[in-house]
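Structure (tokenized):
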């Protein structure tokens, strides 16, 4: 009966009104939860507030547990109760701060599917030329398909592409395009969810429904579930040299604890290799 009522409601009630209930629920819970979350355990680098706990977030689909997926599974202390920045956004911020020259040098930066709080910080840096791109979002600088980037070769000194490639139909083409527009020996942060319990990436082009993709990949708009080794191999074939670490080793235990990062989240520190010399070929 419940299923029939939901189907009927979807047919009869316009989507904007159906979604409004989530906005009302969010508005009603915001201030009580904000007050109850205040404390000294965690700090948000974007809004500067301090909390004893953050909001939990993520999914609990069986495949995420079975495959031990990091970067999509349900996670305690993930979302800032005040500004709503999440753990993956904080991870990128601290990676940029500690491992790239973005806050110090003049450079051109391409940010694919920009996270709002990180975008606000980067746009305020006077020494960088900051360009955002996305296929669907209207607020970006350039509407782009990652498989057909509208930029000349070697246009950028740094690329951020955080949890995007798992959505891309042909990720190998997307990786090659990212390498093409990145200057040689320059860094790129190319994060994706990683399944620690598998050795081969899971893909199925016939999985076209929400239910199929949730069952196989753990999210309705994902088209694959990456294994770390295979993901690195794809990046290397596209022309990147990849150094794999995790948040704790890359950023330090103190940063992970203070800013509620996912300790075991893989960090793919990528650098572009010369395009005229395939990786591994002697000069």
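Design, position by position:
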């Amino acid at each position: 009966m419940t299923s029939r009522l939901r189907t009927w409601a979807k047919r009869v009630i316009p989507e904007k009104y159906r979604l409004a209930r989530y906005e009302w629920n969010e508005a009603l819970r915001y201030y009580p939860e904000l007050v109850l979350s205040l404390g000294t355990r965690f700090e948000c680098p974007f809004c500067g507030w301090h909390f004893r706990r953050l909001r939990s977030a993520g999914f609990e689909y069986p495949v995420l547990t079975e495959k031990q997926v990091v970067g999509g599974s349900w996670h305690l202390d993930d979302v800032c109760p005040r500004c709503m920045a999440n753990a993956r956004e904080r991870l990128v911020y601290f990676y940029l701060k500690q491992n790239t020259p973005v806050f110090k040098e003049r450079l051109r930066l391409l940010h694919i599917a920009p996270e709002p709080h990180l975008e606000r910080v980067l746009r305020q840096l006077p020494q960088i030329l900051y360009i955002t791109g996305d296929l669907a979002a209207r607020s970006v600088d350039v509407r782009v398909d990652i498989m057909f980037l509208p930029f000349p070769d070697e246009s950028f000194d740094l690329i951020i592409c955080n949890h995007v490639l798992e959505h891309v139909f042909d990720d190998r083409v997307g990786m090659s395009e990212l390498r093409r527009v990145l200057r040689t020996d320059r860094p790129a942060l190319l994060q994706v969810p990683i399944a620690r319990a598998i050795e081969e990436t899971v893909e199925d082009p016939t999985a076209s429904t929400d239910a199929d993709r949730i069952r196989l990949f753990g999210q309705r708009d994902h088209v694959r579930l990456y294994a770390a080794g295979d993901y690195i191999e794809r990046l290397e074939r596209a022309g990147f040299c990849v150094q794999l670490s995790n948040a704790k080793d890359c950023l330090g235990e103190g940063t992970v604890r203070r800013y509620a990062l996912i300790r075991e989240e893989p960090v793919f520190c990528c650098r572009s290799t010369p395009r005229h010399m395939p990786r591994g070929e002697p000069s």
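Reviewer-requested clarification: Confidence is low (pLDDT under 50) at residues 277-283. The CA atoms of residues 85 and 116 lie 8 Å apart.
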